[in-house]
Amino acid sequence: MVKKPSVIVAGVLVLALVIYLLIPQDERLIRRHLSSFADTLDVEKDETIISAALAAKSAAGYFVPDAVIHVGNPVPDLSGRKAITQAAIQGRQMLQAADFDFRDLTVEFKSDTLADVLLTATATFTTTAGETDYHVREMRITLRKVEGDWSISQVETVKTLE
Amino acid sequence: MGMTLKTLLIGKSLKRTCIRAGLVGLVVTVVCIAMYRPMIVEGESMAPTYQTGQLNVINQTAYWFSEPARGDVVAIRLAGPSIAYLKRIIALPGETVEIRQGVTRVNGEVREEPYVVNRAPWTYEETVLENDQFLVIGDNRGMPIDNHMMGKARRKKIMGKIGW
Q1: Cα–Cα distance, B132 to A11 (Å, whole number)
Q2: Which of A43, A53, A63, B139 has the fewest CB atoms inside 10 Å of its own CB, making it the most exposed?
Q3: Torsions phi, psi of B101, nearest 5?
Q4: What's the CA gap between A34 and B26, in Å, rounded?
Q5: What's the complex ipTM?
Q6: For A39-49, what is each residue's pLDDT tens digit?
């Protein structure tokens, strides 16, 4: 009788381990990569220009050198890490605070080194004028595996309403 | 009469109470995921019918045996079910729809839309909807059309109807 709770706990742990192992290693890496990327996009209050530049450079590091971003208004089409870094710095300077999140991720592997992720991106902004706004967009992010690491090669908006 | 707080909260048997609580939790989870999904309204797109912060429910059983109808307020999924657009169905598959000076015409007939309180002079070119497309728009049409998320939604994107 005393042993029963420990048997249940052990069963739950084994089940959790099985579920964990059922998710392919690459999918776990991609999910972790995108979650970490979303965190680097966050803007804290009272960010200095130096910390903005460092954060923008860090965000650009999640992309392959020839990455392309096509998300539409108000973000212009961007190509390459340099353009992404500059746009990120400019964007951060217009904001007092921002909180990004990626939800409902579906990972689809096109090959061993190429994957598409469909997700819903949410963003809560507070502009320097003090206005707060909330945006959601359905997006497709393509990732490429280069030397064992997954990096973003393309970001585009999916039109939920045509 | 001699019931203690402990008896009241966990009953005579902790084991049975835990099993019951687990079953209730399971039923609630299944109901929320598959049938009635709670949601919080965010944004002004459906004002004044629905306001930011309002708690509501997406009835995912609404279209199990019938198709979405004109006037229904529906939830349209994005990449998954955790975030959805809240819009009203204006035109049905196969119909021809246009908006001129803010007035909606479906198959050439002007539609009365009592739920629209703010109406800017929108223009939406005449469009024929495909067999699985619904035209959906928010009730708040006081802003320029480019600032309003509206358009054609595929049937598979419609999660359910708002309300019970």
Answers
A1: 46
A2: A53
A3: 50, 35
A4: 31
A5: 0.79
A6: 999 998 888 88
- Calculate mean pLDDT across residues A70-94: 90
What is the residue type of B125?
E
Which chain B residues are closer than 8 Å to A158 by Cβ?
Answer: 79
Please tell me the distance from the alpha carbon of residue B74 to that of residue B72, in angstroms, as a whole number.
6
Per-residue pLDDT tens for B89-141? 999 999 999 999 999 999 999 999 999 998 999 999 999 999 999 999 999 99
Tens of pLDDT, residue by residue over B8-38, are 777 778 888 888 889 999 998 888 888 999 9
Phi-psi region of B154 (alpha: psi -120 to 50; beta: other; left: phi over 0): beta
For the whole model, what pTM was predicted?
0.82
pLDDT for A48: 87
Q: Which residues of A touch B136 (CB under 8 A)?
A: 161
User: Residue A146's Cα: distance from chain center in Å?
Assistant: 18
> Of B128, B75, B137, nearest to B102 (Cα)?
B137
Chain B interface disruption, residue of A34, A99, A108, A161, most B CBs within 10 A: A161
Looking at the complex, report in whole angstroms how far the Cα of residue A59 sits from the nearest Cα belonging to chain B.
23
Coil, strand or helix: which one is B136? strand
**Identity of the residue numbered A22:** L
- Which of A139, A158, A161 is nearest residue B152 as measured by Cβ atoms? A161
Going A62 to A65 to A66 to A69, the CA torsion angle's sign is positive
* Tokens (6 digits) for B64: 């199990």
Residue B111 C-alpha from the chain's centroid? 21
- Give the sign of the dihedral formed by CA B79, CA B81, CA B83, CA B88: positive
Give yes or no for a contact between B103 and B114, defined as CB atoms under 8 angstroms apart: no
Distance CA B13, CA A119 (A): 45
Give the bridge partners for B136, in sequence order.
B89, B151
Q: Which of these, B45, B35, B33, lies nearest to B142 by C-alpha position?
A: B45
Q: Which residue of B has its CA nearest to A120?
A: B79
Please identify which residue in the block is written with the tokens 């997700």.
A119
